[in-house]
Amino acid sequence: MSATANKSSKLGTTSPPLSGERLVELYRTMVLSRYLDERVWLLNRQGKAAIAASAQGHEAAQVACIEATDPSKDHYLTYYRQFTAMMALGTEPEEMLRGFLAKDGDPMSAARQFPLHGAHPRVDLFNFSNVIATQLPQAAGVALADKLRGDDAVTIVFFGDGAASQGDTHEAMNFAGIRKLPIVFFCENNRYAISVPLNKQMAVDTVASRAAGYGFPGVQVDGTDVVAVYEATQAAVNRARAGDGPTLIEVSVERLQPHTTDDDHTRYRSPEDIAQMANKDPVKITSETLRRRDLLTEAEDEAIHAEAKRRVNVATDTVDAEPYPDTETMFDHVTSNRDEGGS
Amino acid sequence: MSATANKSSKLGTTSPPLSGERLVELYRTMVLSRYLDERVWLLNRQGKAAIAASAQGHEAAQVACIEATDPSKDHYLTYYRQFTAMMALGTEPEEMLRGFLAKDGDPMSAARQFPLHGAHPRVDLFNFSNVIATQLPQAAGVALADKLRGDDAVTIVFFGDGAASQGDTHEAMNFAGIRKLPIVFFCENNRYAISVPLNKQMAVDTVASRAAGYGFPGVQVDGTDVVAVYEATQAAVNRARAGDGPTLIEVSVERLQPHTTDDDHTRYRSPEDIAQMANKDPVKITSETLRRRDLLTEAEDEAIHAEAKRRVNVATDTVDAEPYPDTETMFDHVTSNRDEGGS
Amino acid sequence: MPEQTVIEAVRDTMRAEMRRDESVILLGEDVGLRGGVFLATDGFIEEFGEDRVIDTPLAESLICGLALGAAVNGMRPLAEIQFADFVWPAINQLVGEAARVRYGTNGVKTAPMTIRVPYGGGVRGGLYHSQSIEVLFAHTPGLTVVAPATPYDAKGLLASAIRSDDPVIVLEHKRTYRLVKGEVPIEDYTIPIGRAEIKRPGSEMTIVTYGLMLHYALQAAETVSEQGLDVEVLDLRTLRPLDADAIAESVSRTGKVLIVQEDTPAVSISSEVAAIVGERCFFDLDGPITRLTAPELPPMPFSPLQEAAFMPSPEKIVAAIAKLAEL
Amino acid sequence: MPEQTVIEAVRDTMRAEMRRDESVILLGEDVGLRGGVFLATDGFIEEFGEDRVIDTPLAESLICGLALGAAVNGMRPLAEIQFADFVWPAINQLVGEAARVRYGTNGVKTAPMTIRVPYGGGVRGGLYHSQSIEVLFAHTPGLTVVAPATPYDAKGLLASAIRSDDPVIVLEHKRTYRLVKGEVPIEDYTIPIGRAEIKRPGSEMTIVTYGLMLHYALQAAETVSEQGLDVEVLDLRTLRPLDADAIAESVSRTGKVLIVQEDTPAVSISSEVAAIVGERCFFDLDGPITRLTAPELPPMPFSPLQEAAFMPSPEKIVAAIAKLAEL
Ligand SMILES: Cc1ncc(C[n+]2csc(CCOP(=O)(O)OP(=O)(O)O)c2C)c(N)n1
Ligand SMILES: Cc1ncc(C[n+]2csc(CCOP(=O)(O)OP(=O)(O)O)c2C)c(N)n1
Ligand SMILES: [Mg+2]
Ligand SMILES: [Mg+2]
Q1: Are residues C162 and C28 in the same domain?
Q2: What is the pLDDT of residue A341?
Q3: In chain C, which residues have their Cβ closer than 8 Å to the Cβ of B129?
Q4: Cα–Cα distance for residue pair D302/D63, rounded to 1 Å
Q5: 3-class DSSP state for residue A117?
Q6: Cβ neighbours of residue D187 under 8 Å, at least 6 residues apart?
Q7: What is the rounded average pLDDT of the residues D76-85?
Q8: Catalytic positions of D, please?
Q9: Average pLDDT of the segment spanning C184-205
Q10: Cβ-based contacts of C194 with chain A (< 8 Å)
């Protein structure tokens, strides 16, 4: 955690620290996510995936965040860059690919929506829309319902540094502070909103600093550090479950790829800026950390990579051969109680 | 200025302090505003004015703010409670009443709009809409135009504590901070948005505290203290003119009347809360201050009151006798270059 | 049956639904101690408490986003937008989001939420307290829009809205709140969404209308009946989905149609009714498809004479009937 | 005359207008170094600098509010909403505010601002990168809405929009950006706002359409002409104010109308065209007023087969022509 993150220690972490075993498991998910993510870009270049946004660079933050939550009861409101978080929540490579290739059986939206958008069939993860920041007031509403019923659930809502500029973000945080909602605002700050750099997005250095204006703590954490993100999230989740209200966690990450497969970041990032990212690759950093802490041998690491590659290959072959959804199904689920055949 | 207002001293006030003479002039405007304001409520009870919002309690803050600006070049984006500010900017009682009674010659909108809404014929004051907080992004746009042209003008935008919750407020302050716009955000915090008290509007004590999240100073000032508000505004205006960017000024005031003539605040304010307001009446406080500082004698004070009363009576008689605007004029000024007769 | 005003019917229905179903929660500005600016929720916070009667901050996008989030998490939020003119900041959460929750998740999530929106003019509201805002909602797949004009319909349609498993926009015409009285049964009932109703049967012409204009149309029909003209008045009641069958049936039978609305004409409810008639009644029509609406001006002037000139009135409807009848 | 794509015409026109008038400033997300996500402003920041090419924070209400404020203070802001689907957060500043500035100040203030909004589907955009959003804008008094479909019209109408003293919404169909090519004079010209154009003359039926559908309609008209059917194609070009005279003239002459739009039908541009026809062409019509539109679904599925099923196509238009011709 960075200097400004010291607030999180005040929150009091009561749950156990991450075991070495779990750390390796998280690393396994990161590697799988990375291979699958790369594969999706390849499929885009082959004309098979219409569009993809990538989590490359965000993997450590996402697995660590999810690890500190309880998928059996918590709620997740994600945005399009939650590739790794979705895998950490148990989405299989095949399921992910059905979304990207718009194939029959896409679990999130039956391929009506962009990849990763819709609702998850097994955990309470939803990502209704591509419209930036709409999920924040919605997340406050989800948390409000839990609070009114006295349910022991926490809502985690994910967003980017660009999303912090939207009015919806302000309105949601303000209300969450007033009602002390059980919610964690999880901001993945990669310093860019497509091409717009942070200094054109805000006059301050951290999104976390805004939390003070809403009456709850904000912390900034190194998003390549699995343990730091895990601990910060755990503290925030504990705080929320204890009825003490929201926390804003800002993780500093790099967006290793262009914004989406439609983007070319050399148009707006300097060569130096692009080059320095190599040192911020969370997969590499986590591998080194695990090796240094003797939690992983070189052979084990290689096996993890080989297994990830194999799973991605199998999933690709399977899904590539599948059909698109039946056209007639597009008329389903507009409203509950009537067909919409005309006006 | 209150404890948190000490920041404003850092801004450096270079202009001269308010003279005793000007103080009396400001007081004169406050008294005139108060009588006219009371008259409008009476006209509402008589069925002549459809609706009125009042500035009673906000008078000192409004005259002091305007006094620190330059009406020959500055821009004012007001909201419906700017009764006194408009008079400080030279709007005559008759003009005000034409608006309230929807009579021919209403200078702001030709009686198309609610009273005080529209654009001022002599100074650059505008108040397009009743929709809370829309004026803040617009004000940023006004200030942006000045900044791009290098014009030496400052934009003052007025809003309430309720308006601080709107997304537009956040978006406007964020942008103003990024581009260091020549703008003063002037928040009249009367602790209520209609019936909603401050603790249901925000989890923090001051709107001013939000400024830190946008990279510019925020100060809180006692809004019944003409000198304090004047100095804070002057510092902010100087800062803006010097190219140093925005300031958020929050004045603490009381709303002495119900929200509008349609409202009954005994439904939601406790008797004690209503009773304590007597001590926060800025007209009374300013009168006492002037008397204490020997700037005003009892006789002079009485003369000010008598003159205000007289002017209000004359204006009422004049405007009451006037016609409504010609119906046909309602078709004018929809767009520049075409009639809108159908679809 | 007791007589009630529209606002009384709205209040009683909300209270009954909140007693009936714990998951109904109220969200809005000033809905608490103030009881709402129209007193629609008078006494609610005392009965249901601060947990179920939530005075929100001044932020309409928040109100609708909260409602949506609470709805997908098991609640049935009932939100109030204080005036229709202030619904614009919330359009993104309603049209962009709520309307598509069911579709965009292939039915996994649903948003059983109701948004009450007092709308319309003739109340000296000027440009920002008079607007008709039905067009975009009525256009949007995934939304349901009702616009009851009588106390009876207000109760039945509001109950249907609250019990619906989809987002429903309830348009209540402000001017009808205290103006319009009618009998309302005490017992529980609902009115099916999507059904227009013939409020006055007739044989020589159909007036298709809704909201406050229903009452003006009924007055006009009464006036011309004294001159021997037998006009049918069809109240749309639901604006999405429109009851195309009822429109087509009535207009085909009478052969003439006059569409009356308070809103401005271009791309409006009246346009869609005209399109339905033009497509389905073509061979039965014996007069042009006629509309009486507000003029194409930003609705609507504050000044009383101009406001009156802006609004359709019983007299203007009588004139339009006479003109169409002579053709 | 050189051939250009629509996006090239848009880019060249904006550049020319910015050179012509210093008060034209550009606002939007990624309009700077990125040159816009469609490269509409490629090279602009290099030529005009950061003062006139402003990368805004991610906030559409801000973008439109800034444009409005700068417009009333002497600028001619030219703002880009990145995708039409993201215009909803800005509706309040456009429909509630900008549309009424002139009216609400009795002409003292005006807002000469242009908002470019890339819209429409058929680009694998799914629910949130495909929407048609014209309805509300076309309904709103005080706004002007143009929807050019060819490079020639894109240049002429965009120039008119930027030089207009009122807020103009410019709808550019994303799919036409690179698909549609045509001749564009190098010299300066404008096209008057509010005038439809017959893009193909014909005598037996009128297709009224706009946007991408113009091109599909022209293809369909070509196809049926081989079968001896002579269909006129009228391109609306401006959606507010609609050119009611041109519609009425053409339909009265041909006696049949098929209205084709990509948007869903209820309360849409097609409804208003139908209403105009039903009111003004009643005595000349010899067939029902017919519409071909998208189905009533949230637009539009991401999956390619479903997307194709959702969109009107030249084949579907041919079928609709054939059906109407036989009646
Ligand atoms: C309301 C809205 N405006 C614009 C867009 C287009 N857009 C998609 S992603 C994006 C940038 C988002 O940046 P950030 O929030 O930092 O997230 P990141 O992609 O960096 O993770 C933009 C402008 C959108 N989807 N929604
Ligand atoms: C967007 C919007 N929502 C609701 C309203 C209704 N309304 C008018 S004034 C007001 C309260 C405003 O409170 P505040 O900003 O504190 O200003 P004050 O009246 O106290 O000066 C409300 C809710 C409105 N005008 N605009
Ligand atoms: Mg980012
Ligand atoms: Mg207030």
Answers
A1: yes
A2: 37
A3: 127-128
A4: 28
A5: coil
A6: none
A7: 98
A8: 129
A9: 98
A10: 338
